[in-house]
Amino acid sequence: MAVGVLALQGSFNEHMAALRRIGVKGVEIRKAEQLEDVDALIIPGGESTTMAKLAHYHNLFPALRDFVKTGKPVWGTCAGLIFLANKATGQKSGGQELIGGLDCLVNRNFFGSQLQSFETELSVPKLAEEEGGPNGFRGVFIRAPAILEVGPGVEVLADCPVPLETKKTMIPVDNDQEETIATLERVIVAVRQGNLLATAFHPELTSDSRWHSLFLKMKKDTGEKRLQCISTSVTDSENHRGKLPPYDLPIYE
User: Fold this and answer.
1) What value does the mean pLDDT take over residues 40-46?
2) Alpha helices in 40-161 (DSSP H)
């Protein structure tokens, strides 16, 4: 099985290394015609605006939408999740082209800026059931999105507790004052729908290969061939391209 990894920008090197560790051939995808030679596709994390501009420059969006419609497995991580979503929010006016196909609403940069990146232990019972191993997975969130809503055909594989600030009006004896209190809510960070898999975090940055293994076992389902791909106009406020890390790094144990 040859797995394509969209190699325009972002963590494609880390996905290539993760595939090598489990003995799978990875193919870097930069041109539309290269998609004809792969059986599955990974859209990595990175800077989504830059990736969208490069994909548009290379006229990749029509080919990527066609690939999704074939029913072949497609996995989006972080920015890749945004690309696969039918709708995305958290942007200012302008727009960013999406591939679509995944029936969900994504909020880009839900967890904050680069400085607010974090790691946390996620509960992944469905992953453990299908791939073995523990019920926990170390999620690496880097300027990460989150899924706010999912359609009826979308299976939730993991969610994440998020501390959100809410305001509560307090009325003391002498004057009115506002107090900020912390509440705990959960947002969805991993889903599966037909031939599509999406994670808001970066499994390729860990030594746990179960997400890659799960993805490779996703079979082509002819019933999903008519998935609707919607290009929803969204934008973001960033246009930063960082250096790619070494080919096999970083790997968090």
Assistant:
1) 93
2) 48-57, 61-69, 79-84, 125-131
Residues pairing with 188 in the sheet: 147, 159
Residues of the binding site = 46-48, 108, 142-143
Dump pLDDT digits (tens) for 55-78.
888 999 999 999 999 999 999 999
> Annotated catalytic residue: which of 14, 104, 160, 204?
204
Chain segment 77-136, per-residue pLDDT in tens: 999 999 999 998 876 555 678 999 999 999 888 887 777 788 899 999 999 999 999 999
Residues that constitute the known binding site for L-glutamine: 46-48, 108, 142-143
Given 14, 15, 78, 104, the catalytic residue: 78
Cα 163 to Cα 182: distance, rounded to the nearest angstrom: 6
* Domain formed by 2-109+143-152+188-224, architecture: 3-Layer(aba) Sandwich (3.40)
Question: Tokens at residue 12, please?
Answer: 């494609």
Q: Which of 150, 32, 189, 11 is nearest to 99 (CA)?
A: 32
Report pLDDT digits (tens) over 131-154.
Answer: 999 999 999 998 889 999 999 999
Catalytic residue flag (residue 78)? yes
- 228-251 pLDDT, tens per residue? 333 333 333 332 233 333 323 333
Longest dimension (CA), the chain: 73
Rounded to whole angstroms, the Cα distance separating 188 from 183 reads 17
Residue 36's contacts (CB-CB under 8 Å, 6 or more residues apart) are none
